[in-house]
TrEMBL record:
CDD domains: HTH_XRE (cd00093)
PROSITE patterns recorded: HTH_CROC1
Pfam families cross-referenced by the UniProt entry: HTH_3
Single GO MF descriptor: DNA binding
All residue ranges annotated as the HTH cro/C1-type domain in the record: 42-85
Protein name: Helix-turn-helix transcriptional regulator
Matching SMART domains: HTH_XRE
Gene Ontology CC terms: cytosol
InterPro entries linked: Cro/C1-type_HTH, Lambda_DNA-bd_dom_sf, TransReg_Diox_bact_type
Record carries keyword Nucleotidyltransferase: no
Keywords: DNA-binding
Length: 99
């Protein structure tokens, strides 16, 4: 626990646990974090739209298994497909921010 005594921010904790931005460990952490956020946003938006995974897949020309993989944070997502799922299937706009 001594290594946590001087931690004063969440960023410091992440740096300690996963390394600084640009390291392999941190990149894996960041990728997993972003995938989790996307999966949770998709689940919430789909449920708010009262759609099943199958209905959303039909609306967007994908498969139920693909929607399920995204919602479970598995696999790779093509940006064009993600945009189609949110914009066509769920009538939501996507905004991207690069930091």
């Amino acid at each position: 626990m001594d290594k946590y005594n001087n931690i004063q921010s969440f960023d410091e904790l992440i740096n300690l646990e996963h390394g600084i931005i640009g390291t392999e460990s941190r990149n894996k952490y960041e990728e997993s974090s972003q995938m989790f956020i996307i999966s949770e946003m998709l689940k919430e938006a789909r449920k708010d739209a009262n759609l099943t995974q199958e209905q959303l897949a039909e609306k967007t020309g994908t498969k139920k298994s693909y929607i399920s993989k995204i919602e479970n944070g598995k696999g790779n997502i093509q940006l064009s497909t993600l945009i189609r799922i949110f914009e066509v299937g769920l009538n939501k706009r996507i905004g991207l921010t690069f930091l």
